[in-house]
Amino acid sequence: MVERYALEPLKSLWSLKSQYERWLEVELSVIRAYEELKIAPKGTYEKAKKNAYINVDKILEVEKVVDHDVIAFIKVATSKMGEEAKFFHFGLTSSDIVDTANSLALVRATKLIIEELKKLSEILLTKALNFKDLPTIGRTHGVHAEPTSFGLKFLSWHAEIERNIKRLEFAMKEISIGKLSGAVGNYANIDPEIEKLALSFLSLKPTKVATQVIPRDVHAFLIEVFALVASAIERMAVEIRHLQKTETLEVQEPFKKGQRGSSAMPHKKNPILCERLTGMSRIIRSYVNAALENIVLWHERDISHSSVERYMFPDLTTTLYYMVIKTQKLIEDLVIYPENIQKNIEITNGLVYSQRVLLKLVEKGLTREEAYKKVQEIALYCWENKTSFKDAVKKKFNLTEDEIKEIFDPKYYLRNVNKIFKRFQ
Amino acid sequence: MVERYALEPLKSLWSLKSQYERWLEVELSVIRAYEELKIAPKGTYEKAKKNAYINVDKILEVEKVVDHDVIAFIKVATSKMGEEAKFFHFGLTSSDIVDTANSLALVRATKLIIEELKKLSEILLTKALNFKDLPTIGRTHGVHAEPTSFGLKFLSWHAEIERNIKRLEFAMKEISIGKLSGAVGNYANIDPEIEKLALSFLSLKPTKVATQVIPRDVHAFLIEVFALVASAIERMAVEIRHLQKTETLEVQEPFKKGQRGSSAMPHKKNPILCERLTGMSRIIRSYVNAALENIVLWHERDISHSSVERYMFPDLTTTLYYMVIKTQKLIEDLVIYPENIQKNIEITNGLVYSQRVLLKLVEKGLTREEAYKKVQEIALYCWENKTSFKDAVKKKFNLTEDEIKEIFDPKYYLRNVNKIFKRFQ
Amino acid sequence: MVERYALEPLKSLWSLKSQYERWLEVELSVIRAYEELKIAPKGTYEKAKKNAYINVDKILEVEKVVDHDVIAFIKVATSKMGEEAKFFHFGLTSSDIVDTANSLALVRATKLIIEELKKLSEILLTKALNFKDLPTIGRTHGVHAEPTSFGLKFLSWHAEIERNIKRLEFAMKEISIGKLSGAVGNYANIDPEIEKLALSFLSLKPTKVATQVIPRDVHAFLIEVFALVASAIERMAVEIRHLQKTETLEVQEPFKKGQRGSSAMPHKKNPILCERLTGMSRIIRSYVNAALENIVLWHERDISHSSVERYMFPDLTTTLYYMVIKTQKLIEDLVIYPENIQKNIEITNGLVYSQRVLLKLVEKGLTREEAYKKVQEIALYCWENKTSFKDAVKKKFNLTEDEIKEIFDPKYYLRNVNKIFKRFQ
Amino acid sequence: MVERYALEPLKSLWSLKSQYERWLEVELSVIRAYEELKIAPKGTYEKAKKNAYINVDKILEVEKVVDHDVIAFIKVATSKMGEEAKFFHFGLTSSDIVDTANSLALVRATKLIIEELKKLSEILLTKALNFKDLPTIGRTHGVHAEPTSFGLKFLSWHAEIERNIKRLEFAMKEISIGKLSGAVGNYANIDPEIEKLALSFLSLKPTKVATQVIPRDVHAFLIEVFALVASAIERMAVEIRHLQKTETLEVQEPFKKGQRGSSAMPHKKNPILCERLTGMSRIIRSYVNAALENIVLWHERDISHSSVERYMFPDLTTTLYYMVIKTQKLIEDLVIYPENIQKNIEITNGLVYSQRVLLKLVEKGLTREEAYKKVQEIALYCWENKTSFKDAVKKKFNLTEDEIKEIFDPKYYLRNVNKIFKRFQ
């Protein structure tokens, strides 16, 4: 976890203290189930809850001797208990606790991320609506193509976030499972009924079939979706970085009062947040392969996934949370320069309307092939000589003033934009 | 594509010829829509369909001049048309064709993969049921843990394949979209109605909002799920490789008559298919990062994703298809040695029953901590001295013959297995 | 391998025929060593060479029965031999042949790549020298920073290619090893002298210690360097794509006569080669993880690396070769627009000289902190109001006309450039 | 950074405090150069050194306002200086400091890693020599192949570590560069002589040509080699895990007194360190792609690499250091069971000598093909029927008692092992 990028409540979620508390939460829910199913005497749960002792330093100390974190936890947690200790961890194996608690943590982290993504999605939709009618130049291959709606950029991001929310919900549902089926997943020393009841207290469902652990494809899937979310944010960040390039300057990342862009060059305002988000996306994506490798554990499990997850779960969720939170503000306060946007449409002297000329000529009877050749010839000439394409078209083709006017109108390109927006209502 | 791993019908799906045919399929569906919406004269579609000319060599020849594959395709495809040529590609941009056709290919490939996965899933379930009652030793960390059901291995794989089928269906639904919205996705020269109708002929839906292309998160998501499927198969392959190790020898990959395991050592029978599948999974996983990087295209699109996809789409789908097909046979014909499975349970002289002794002692009044210490002491002694743990337990603890018998019975560990299986009915 | 990106001689290098020929090359070099060391009768080598029979279809046919490609090869290769067949593959295991032949192929491919990289490096240096004295705006964060030399861009690429050539040579030396030490690498049935002599005929050295195979870290290292080369090319490609953006337009990828940029928009000239190279780099990078996973083979080897390598070796080397060849031409014929380069320097109305003003004020006695604040204030004002920074500086600070002139001179920034270039002579 | 895996001195190396101290080290070395080259007055360096003020909390506080870490650092560091402050950061840009300091940190981390790798390499060589003459079964595909020397396993690891040390030294030499060439790398406001001299105080060399930053291929290369080291360790870890499998049990990871293998099963001793190392290797490998993506920065630099490096540099170096340190002890204290090693050779009833029978028959006049068929037939029969291959060979082939004895002798396979070891003297 990188301190400077760890925001609350994600940061605390991954503290050792929180981890032990989650482990206790799981252990206690099992005791409660034992009691409800009349295996443990009445009151066991309350006593266990009251006497459970969590002390991070103590646990770490014991771990040094036993070299096993769950055993150290159990020793300390039960150290102030009486009879009720007998039901603590009864019939369970370490992974029952660790894996179920991992699910709790991941579900909670994912919920927080989804919540913030929904806000981001709203912000994007609002921006999209605000700029629906502002023409901008569409760029393909980095080269001016044809005018389009500036709002469509935001709408496209909004749609991608919406898809990702759906995927996250799908993946979160999958990970909303626990596992209390013992050392090799066969319920040798615990009844499936205990598992079902105990997990219900945690809003989790039993894993349909487990080994010692919950199968890691479930975790990998969630992480894959995290990587999609990160990439979606990177896509926005890269677009903003492009639009903020000095020659283009259609938008600008918010720049705080007192902020400095460069230690050497006082004039600089840099899209540093967008660049940071771009880098973070690399980090998140880089974990996907590790998550996939974790699936292929040996036999009824090996523990190689564990060290991976100690890095991966906190890093991924805190980083992604940071990304989402920061992107909200980024989009909300994005500085937009409509006059530059408008100006940029026209810097090619009308070339961006070439397709409309082409289609007009086809309409007038030329084959597509003929029309293409004629228009390309003039277009490339104007491009090289920086002369007006509109004038050249006027001169070369037999078109009325009205036709010319209609062809060279950026608004034309927005005529169907409302139909697109309607899909999002 | 690696020739030796390319099976039909996947192999042909990715031939240049098939690609051009898919492009034509899309172009024609648009013409059909123009006709149905009365923009093109009646009969245009039939004429275009009849006169369309696909000739791979010709197209490649033209491409050498124009350096653009779709333009070369259009030139050749319309070269024998009359008036109807005017409606060919009318209002469209190359990506409308390429991307919609890509969706068609991916949907078709995914469908084939799902179909075969369902067969595999069935095979796994059958095997699971067949071996439900066979005790085997469960292994965690590669070390004997406790007995479990041999059938549970297959059931666990079955469940993972089932999860993956669901994910694939989810991802396939996402990719079942086309895009006919022109150069920058704003329907400047085509009506959304045309798109909707044309795509319906291809069983696709319109992309809610596109740039020049369908957003690449949709493709990346599908590929991520492919990677999960590959990893699921790798997990089976690695388990079989483990179980076929000479010291273990509980199963063996089918070995054909006449097959040779080694050019040097005539006695060898090697799990080469499982090893091949393991390697293939690395290939498939390795593409995920490339697929994720493809999401972040510049502005209304850059074409950097295209070269990636020329490798990725054929490689991934043919390789995965191969993996699924081969795994079916692998599982179906897997040689299983029940006597070795049984023998292996007992090679630790009863140590694998240590938890049951522990729990019995807790039942009898010891604290978990005391019981653990006592049992561990004896267990480690027996382990080192290769003496019978059962005998030691008898000697050390005050247990009746019946209790001992009950504790050291592998069947005990299977008593809840039926409850697990019931979840899959 | 993607047909359209496979150039000769790389393409043929990976044909099945070439592979069998390399295998034969290795087998024959062993026979030659047996003969030279008087183990095989005189003339055995010549006879074996003469009677060796390579027929791709036959070998594939036999493979279908024995399910082992090397055994099939041996059967066919020796099918027309007499007594000399006894020494064919004598004391060897399949991997001796396959791995040694793999080294041959990789060394040959790498040599070809290095050769072309050297040409590319020269082209870059020439361009660097040609544009050494042309001022251009340096951009950091995509935002104008300070003027610099246009030639430095090329020089920086040249230096990176030079570093990569050195790394490639280092890695190629490592992979210039063969392995003829038998089934588990202990020379059980072959003398190390035979290996040494046979490999010397192939310009290879013995692996110091092998298992059944050459350790895969050697291959992984080479592939890692391939990925560095690909990234170096991607860096150039991305820079060109940036400089070709319509608003910037300082360079343009060569555009062939007759070429078409878009099926819809006749005016388009797109940097499609650069975009293709960008995508290819993703492909090459994506293989690194697979190559690394190949290192961890089980015991004296498992064969999981083999399927990976059937994809990876041909794909990586042909793609990289294509990239290098295409980049040569790209750089050589790059269209450069000096007037646009010059124009772009000034679009910020002098803001890019802000550091020079800052340093001048420090020289005149202000603290860095004071100077920064003053200059930033003016700079941000001019930026927002699009007014001349030069005028503002003149008005605000007590500077002579000569000082102003000196500060706002792009040439100033090039005064040390020759010193940089001297490092490359 | 994962607390529990961060060992000193690596842990402190990456503290914020150490980072600021390194930045100061770079700044002061520049001032020292200014003084030595008579640009700063005599005594400036000593004064700056004495008055420099580093206070982590203060710097973080200032950063909150200026949103730029280097500017915050400069403000605080110079806050107690007098005139000498003028030369602090004079002519430099932030990246001059950050990148040069990064090199310092990476060089220092790499040196520590190399140092420990050398110890590990020695430990491996010693083990190799100790077990040189112990026969063990060689396993290919996980299946018994032929006997070999147990010491060769260690020797093979030793050789791989040696290769990696060489690569690390090569990569470390590359990264032993700094960069003090200003905002866009053209020495606009600083003389190359200052850079050369200042860097020499830090034992670094100038980057031959930089942009605003040191080109990231240099860092990526180092990280790629880190990934090779991690994979080498993973290879050992996986082998030990295999050999510790209950059925094989030839070695055992050291197990501390008081340690507990499982919370449920008191008998368990698990190779948890090896599994942890396996997982860590996944983490380290996963960063390679991110490091490669960092190469392709925009123009004279974008800062997207920075957030990546905040995770990557500390994580990679501390984790790798941990891995090396832990592996030393693992190998040194590895529990080895020679009797099990010996026993396992014979569990196939002599099948592992099949090649020797084959070669003997060829020697006696059979063709390789005939011999293979005959031996395979018997071998597969014995395998299936678990009968003695030695007896079958005796019965079937006309071999003397001495020939049989010679063929079925594991020592035979070690006869050339000394020749391999000689290569390492």
UniProtKB/TrEMBL annotation, chains A, B, C, D:
UniProt cross-references to CDD domains, sorted A to Z: Adenylsuccinate_lyase_1 (cd01360)
Signal sequence interval, chain numbering: none
Domain of life of the source: Bacteria
SUPFAM superfamilies tied to this protein: L-aspartase-like
UniProt keyword list: Lyase, Purine biosynthesis
Catalytic activity: N(6)-(1,2-dicarboxyethyl)-AMP = fumarate + AMP; (2S)-2-[5-amino-1-(5-phospho-beta-D-ribosyl)imidazole-4-carboxamido]succinate = 5-amino-1-(5-phospho-beta-D-ribosyl)imidazole-4-carboxamide + fumarate
EC number: 4.3.2.2
Gene3D superfamilies in the record: Fumarase/aspartase (C-terminal domain), Fumarase/aspartase (Central domain), Fumarase/aspartase (N-terminal domain)
GO molecular function: lyase activity
Database matches in InterPro entries: AdenyloSucc_lyase_C, Fumarase/histidase_N, Fumarate_lyase_CS, Fumarate_lyase_fam, Fumarate_lyase_N, L-Aspartase-like, Pur_lyase
Pathway assigned to this chain's UniProt record: Purine metabolism; AMP biosynthesis via de novo pathway; AMP from IMP: step 2/2; Purine metabolism; IMP biosynthesis via de novo pathway; 5-amino-1-(5-phospho-D-ribosyl)imidazole-4-carboxamide from 5-amino-1-(5-phospho-D-ribosyl)imidazole-4-carboxylate: step 2/2
All copies of domain Adenylosuccinate lyase C-terminal, residue ranges: 349-425
Family statement: Belongs to the lyase 1 family. Adenylosuccinate lyase subfamily.
Protein name: Adenylosuccinate lyase
Lineage per the UniProt record: Bacteria, Thermotogati, Thermotogota, Thermotogae, Thermotogales
